[in-house]
Amino acid sequence: MICKVSFVVFVLFLLGSSSNGIPDSEVKSICSKTQNPAFCLSLLGSNPSATIVDLTQHVIDIARGNVSNTIKLISNLIAQSGKNPKAKEHYKACLEHFGEDGALGDVDYTQELLHKGDYQGVNLAAASIADDVDDCISGESPTDPSFNDLSPLPSHAKVIESVVAVLLVLSKSLGH
Questions:
Q1: Residues 68-93: pLDDT tens digits?
Q2: Which of 80, 97, 113, 160 is at 20 to 30 A from 107, Cα to Cα?
Q3: CA–CA separation, 40 vs 36, rounded Å?
Q4: In order of start, what are the domains of the chain with their CATH numbers?
Q5: Using a CB cutoff of 8 Å and minimum separation of 24, what contacts does 169-174 make?
Q6: Is the predicted pLDDT of residue 131 greater than 50, yes or no?
Q7: Which CA distances in Å does 93 have to 74, 83, 108, 147?
Q8: Model confidence over 7-34: pLDDT tens digits?
């Protein structure tokens, strides 16, 4: 008897949770608030049972993967910079901006805040990811000398910035 009741509760839970998904029209509305709605729509995909929290989690996972891959790229660029001290210095600074004390740490913190339900904190932590990426590419202050980076790093950074832009818009929709 307990087994049957548990099964019924489980089925009702599944039915209830699938009806909490956000409609495609809301996903389109969210994506229309980004600079690149087509990128946002492709990132979020179509999942009628996904909640706004599910979509935010999905984007955090994508951000983590992109940041991790960029860290690997930067490590390779440091190794390849050889006798170019300016390049080596730039890439080492970028490694700090992307590492545990930078973007990767901020992605993890964003994740933690999402799990705690601190949705305003999610927005602030996501903004920190964007700042870390920008500090790598543009420098920490306007007076920092720019580095003419011809590597794939700026392209990787642009993708992460686009992912974070979606995360920022999603975070504003959390809790509403």
A1: 999 999 999 999 998 899 999 999 99
A2: 80
A3: 6
A4: 22-173 (1.20.140.40)
A5: 169/30, 169/31, 169/33, 169/34, 169/40, 170/30, 170/52, 170/55, 170/56, 170/59, 171/56, 171/119, 171/122, 171/123, 171/126, 172/123, 173/30, 173/52, 174/52, 174/53, 174/56, 174/114, 174/119, 174/122
A6: yes
A7: 10, 17, 20, 12
A8: 333 333 333 334 468 888 889 999 999 9
Note whether 119 and 174 are within 8 A (CB). Answer: yes
- 102 neighbors 168 (Cβ within 8 angstroms): no
Token pair for 153: 């790093």
Print the SS3 string covering 110-164: HHHHHHHCCHHHHHHHHHHHHHHHHHHHHCCCCCCCCCCCCCCHHHHHHHHHHHH
Mean pLDDT of the region 140-148: 77
Q: Which two tokens stand for residue 147?
A: 């580095």
* Residues in CB range of 105: below 8 A, 6 or more apart: 99
